[in-house]
Amino acid sequence: MEINTISGLSPIQTSSAAKTQTPAQVTKEFGSFLSDAMNQVNQAQVESAVLGDKFAAGQIDSIDQVMVAGLKASNMLQMTLQVRNKVIESYQEIMRMSI
């Protein structure tokens, strides 16, 4: 059984020589990261739907592929929703702070 690594993750840089970024640069990079992540979730959903349609049409004999693609898409969507919930919860907590 082969275990695949999670793609799209980069190692955390702990170098003290890392250059300082402006808030605008960080915001742009974070927005780009979120956009890429949402595109990956969307692609997994589309792939799952295509495989389901092919299975229903009899073009694919193995239900394993369909189930794995469906579960992968489902897990990615659930993780995305949990991250969204944590971001909203963090924002609400920050808004409750008194200055």
From TrEMBL:
UniProtKB keywords: Bacterial flagellum, Cell projection, Cilium, Flagellum
Localization, UniProt: Bacterial flagellum basal body
Positions of the UniProt region annotated as Disordered: 1-23
A Pfam cross-reference name: FliE
Family: Belongs to the FliE family.
Alphabetized HAMAP family for the sequence: FliE (MF_00724)
Protein name as annotated: Flagellar hook-basal body complex protein FliE
Gene: fliE
